[in-house]
# Entry
Amino acid sequence: MPVKWVLHWVPSVGATANTQVMNEISQCVESLNGVKEGKWKSIITFYKPMTREPAMAAEFARDFLGISIPDQPKKYYFIIRGQRIIFEADSNIELIMDKLQSYKSRVSLTFEGIQYQVGDFQLRVGKVSPTHSESMRGIVMEVEYLPLSSIDKSRQVLEDFFDIWKDTLSKRSLPGQFLHIEPNYTEYGLLDQYTSQHTAVQYATVMAQMIATVQPNQQVRN
Amino acid sequence: MECVVQGFVASEVRLVCDLEQPEPTWTVRHVGGAMKGAGADQLSVLVRTMVESKASKNALRLFYTLGYKLEYEQLRVGFSFKFQRGAPITVTVSCVNKIPKLHAVEDAVPVTPGIQLVEVTAPTTDSNYNDVVQAVSSFSEYLAPLIHLSKPGVSTGVAPTAKTAAASLMSDVKGMKM
# Structure
């Protein structure tokens, strides 16, 4: 499948991500002759262990995430960043986890917005908000280069597009910028051919970055 | 090959690996408790929930990391037959083997040498399980000349000898595809 970069919005000091910034970003996409294609949505769920003894909780996976992505509606992904685990299963794995009662959903975040076609690129701009809440906690963007599925071969063209994108945004003097951090896919056992598992790992990395932004004392490693 | 892992809050899950495929494929399987109540006791077959999810090959590593412990691992070798008789029925005939060391299938040893496990199963929903129960029950009766099946956990008597069963099969069960 095509290579994708997942970017997250880093507000300037003292600023926050809000609807106005989101609208400006969307207008920038449209200024690149972006053609609206419809809506998209991903959901990330943070799981916590249901141990009877709180003291034991430290022995179990603390950064256990579940992700559903629109590119694979019949699949679900689990990520444990600390152990560099990316696990893919049919979407009813959520039902199995629910029946097992060993881990429960702590909080869910929804990533949703509009999808655009810009030449050979597919862009998705979306807000981040707690599921069942309208309050915006962040902004993410997906940039997908449709002709290539090799991460190495597509890196230069995606970097060039990102430079153009940053130039476009800079004209609006927005209070922040998009950041892209490429995870070390090899540590997750992933190869150069891009897959939805790569996307899931990127979202987990984005979440860690967003949490670090809110909690500056927490160290984040890739 | 099946790994059964146990969690820290009394939850058990099965990780099944199909070794017959060119590339081994994994399935996460949760088997729920049997349906309970007076109505369930009257049923001639066991009805229970089961959820399966195809998964990537690092399923065992995931569950270890989530705090699960391996209870046991077993190897089942045998055959599976599909029938359509009022419901889609699957009959598996298998030899169950214990594996002394993780994934060491070459060293597997039969749990009951010379004895095979025969299981008859059919999928159902909450709304039509009575029909499926009837279909499985009827099919089991149909197989009676060949094999004596009983509800798991319920012993219903002695099976005829293999010779008697075979003779009965030749005379009664004509045209049955296996």
Residues 105 and 133 of chain A are 16 Å apart (CA to CA). Strands of chain A lie at 3-11, 35-49, 64-68, 75-80, 85-90, 103-118, 121-130, 138-145, 176-179.
